[in-house]
Amino acid sequence: MLDFLRNPEFWKHASIPFVAAIIGWVTNWVAIKLTFKPLEFVGIRPFLGWQGIIPSKARKMAEIFVDKTMYRLGTLKEAFQSMEPEKMAEHITAVMEPRLDGYTNEILYYRHPALWKMLPETVKQQVYARVRAEMPGLIENLIADVAEDIEELVDFKHMLTERLEGDKQLLNRLFLEAGEVEFRFIVRSGLYFGFLFGLVQLLVWIFFKHWWVLPAFGIAVGYATNWFAINIIFRPLNPVKLGRFALQGVFLKRQKEVAAVWCKLVTTEILTLQHIIYAVMFGPRAERAQALIRKHIEPVADRVVEAYRPMAGVAVGEDKLAEIRDLIGEKAVGVSTDPFDHWPFNRERGRLAEQLLRERMESLPSEEFQDLLRPCFQEDEMKLIITGAVLGLLAGIAQLVFVFGGV
After folding, report:
1. Cβ proximity of 201 and 218 under 8 Å
2. Residue 72 near residue 368, CB atoms below 8 Å
3. Residues 108, 305: contact at Cβ < 8 Å?
4. Which of helix, strand or coil describes residue 1?
5. 380: left (phi > 0), else alpha (psi -120 to 50), else beta?
6. How far apart are CA 330 and CA 221, in angstroms?
7. 4 by DSSP, 3-state: which?
8. Beta strands in 13-147 (DSSP E)
9. Where are the beta strands (DSSP E) in 18-149?
10. What secondary structure does DSSP assign to 267-323, as a single string?
11. Using CA of residue 373, residue 379, residue 381, residue 384, what is the dihedral sign?
C-alpha cells in the first residue's frame, strides 16, 4: 500500500515544492543583504563587483531622508525650541562659571604677563567679578538669539546629509531599525510563497515534463517572491475591511511602533544638540554664528576692560586694550562648543525633540509614512527582483540536472 513511498520518482517530484521554498527563501535573503552590504565597493570597478544599494547612493538616500521625512516632521527651529533653550543657557552657565577665572587669566596673562602679575589682587578680583556678573545674562541673550535665528545659522539639509553620507552604517540603520520586522518578513515570506509556487510547479511538471519547465519556474519563483514580499509590506496603503479583518501593508500597520524606534535613533545619533551646535560653529554658515557671539561679547569685553583700565591703561595704552577686547571675543568663540560635549545633557535635550518628532510621525498619513522605508526598495528595486530571478533560474537548472538528470 505504501510502495509509492519507496519509489524514487515520488521523492523527486515531492522535492519540487521544497526546492522552490528554498529558492524563495534564499533569493529574498540575498536581496536584503545586497540592499545594505557591503558598505564599500568590493570587486573591480566599474561593473565587476558590488556595493550595497543604500551605501552606494549614500548622498542621494540622505537627501531623500531629509526631503521626504525630516521636513515633514518639523523645522530645525521647532526641534531646537523643543530642547528648551533656557535650559541650555543654564547648563552653559553652570559649565562655564568655574572656568571663567581661568579664561580671564589666559587672556590677560597672554597679552601682558608682567603687568598681570604686578596687578594687586583686589584689581584682579574686580576683573573676575565683572566677568562672572556679566556672563549669565550674556549667555541667556545669546542662546535666545541663536534659537530665533537657528535656520539662518545652520544649513539643515547640509548638516543631516553630511552626517549620513559620512557614516554609511548609520544610514543603513535608519532603514534596518525602522523596518526590522519587515525585513524578517521578506525573508520568511520567500519560504512560504516559494512553497506555494512549487505546488503549482509540481502540477505543471507532472503533465509537462519539458526541460524548460523547472528553469522557467525557478525564474518565476525568484522574481515573484521578491515582488510579492515588497508589495505586501506597503499595500494596501490604507486599511481594507474584509469582514472582521482589516488588511493593510505590514509596515504601515506598525506606524506607532516604528515611530518610537526611529525617532529615538534620529535624536540620539543624528539630530542631537551637539551636532546642531557644531553645525552652527563649523558649518558653511559659521561666520554668521561667530559674528553673533562677538556681537554679544563686545559689551562684556568693554566692561572687563574698564575694570582693568585703572592699573593697565597707563602701562599698555588704548591700542593694547583694544586687542584684549578682541581676544575676549576670540576666546568666547573658541570655547563655545565645550558645554555641549556632555552626553547626559545632550540625551536629555534629545528626548524632548524625540517626543516632538514621534507625535508628528504617528500622525502622518500612510502616503507620507511609507516614505520612511519605501526609498530603500525603490532604489534599484527592479535590480533586486531580477537578481532573485537569476538565482531562481540557476536553482531550476540545478534541479533539472541533478534531480531529474536533465530529462
Report:
1. no
2. yes
3. no
4. coil
5. left
6. 66
7. helix
8. 42-44, 48-50
9. 42-44, 48-50
10. HHHTS-HHHHHHHHHHSTTHHHHHHHHHHHHHHHHHHHHHHHHHHHHHHHHHHHHHH
11. negative
Coil, strand, or helix at residue 245? strand
Q: Which three cell numbers stand for residue 290?
A: 561667530
Find the angle CA(134)-CA(136)-CA(138) to the nearest 5 degrees: 65
pLDDT digits (tens, 9 = 90+) for 253-286: 899 999 999 999 999 999 999 999 999 999 999 9
Nearest to 328 by CA among 292, 302, 291: 302
Q: What is the pTM of this model?
A: 0.82
Q: Which amino acid is at 197?
A: F
Domain count of the fold of the chain: 1
Quote the CA–CA distance of 367 and 364 in Å, as a whole number: 8
Residue 239 gets the label, from left (phi > 0), alpha (psi -120 to 50) or beta, of beta
> What is the identity of the amino acid at 193?
F
Find the farthest-apart pair of alpha carbons in the chain and give their distance in angstroms, rounded.
119
Helix (H, G, I), strand (E, B) or coil at 237: coil
Residue 9 resides in a domain: no
Tens-place pLDDT, residues 138-168: 899 999 999 999 999 999 999 999 999 999 9
Start-to-end CA distance of the chain, whole Å, equals 28
> Over the stretch 40-79, which tens digit does the pLDDT of each residue have?
999 988 778 889 888 998 898 888 888 888 888 989 999 9
Answer whether residue 71 is part of any domain. Answer: yes
13, 168 Cβ separation under 8 angstroms? no
Provide the residue range defining the domain that includes 122: 14-36+48-402
Name beta bridge partners: 246: 241
C-alpha cell belonging to residue 227: 515582488
In-domain check, residue 3: no
By 3-state DSSP, what share of the chain in percent is helix, strand and coil, each rounded to 5?
Answer: 80, 5, 15
| Lookup: cell for 337 | 562648543
Calpha distance 251→258 (Å, rounded): 8
Give bridge partners of residue 49 from the DSSP assignment. 43
